[in-house]
Design a protein that fits this description.
Structural class: mainly alpha
Subcellular location: Membrane
Oligomer: single chain
Number of strands: 0
Helix content: over 70%
Pfam families: SecE
Distance between the termini: 66 Å
Main location: membrane
Order of helices and strands: HHHH
Family: Belongs to the SecE/SEC61-gamma family.
Shape: elongated
Radius of gyration: 30 Å
Largest sheet: none
GO cellular component, one term: plasma membrane
Number of domains: 2
Length: 128
């Protein structure tokens, strides 16, 4: 058996620093929000939004952020390739599913009642 290829994740010190900065900015945003409660709501929310935006920007400048953006672009490209059913096809398939559910429900109900009759009435002799 061949060994599967090893996947190596290479992260540079700068990338780790960007991620650490993003985390520190997010923590700073929460600390600023609660620490500036006496300054008024406008200052609180402004500091929260600015620091959160800076943290998100720092994350998206890192390799993990760039990979997330690439994943989103690839996903969007794949969704555009999907052949979606027409309204008529979707309605027909929904009807088939509902019909199958009703048939299965009736089958299971009849099976349950048959087993109940066999066990309680015929075998055990319990009449209700």
């Amino acid at each position: 058996m061949a060994n599967p290829p090893q996947v190596e994740t290479v992260t540079s010190g700068a990338d780790k620093a960007k991620l650490a900065a993003a985390v520190l900015l997010l923590i700073g945003a929460l600390a600023a929000y609660y620490g500036l409660s006496k300054q008024g709501a406008l200052v609180q929310w402004a500091s929260l939004i600015v620091l959160l935006a800076a943290g998100v920007a720092a994350f998206f400048m890192s390799e993990h952020g760039k990979a997330l953006i690439a994943y989103g672009r690839d996903s969007s490209r794949e969704v555009k390739k999907v052949v979606w059913p027409t309204r008529k096809e979707a309605t027909q398939m929904t009807g088939y599913v509902f019909a199958f559910v009703v048939v299965m429900a009736l089958f299971l109900w009849m099976t349950d009642k048959t087993l109940e009759w066999v066990l309680y009435d015929l075998i055990l002799g319990w009449k209700r």
